[in-house]
Amino acid sequence: QVQLVESGGGSVQAGGSLKLSCAASGGTFDWCEMAWYRQAPGKERQWVSSISPLGTTTYVDSVKGRFTISRDSAKKIAYLQMHSLKTEDTAVYYCAACGKYWGQGTQVTVSS
Question: Percent of the chain beyond pLDDT 70?
Answer without folding.
Answer: 100
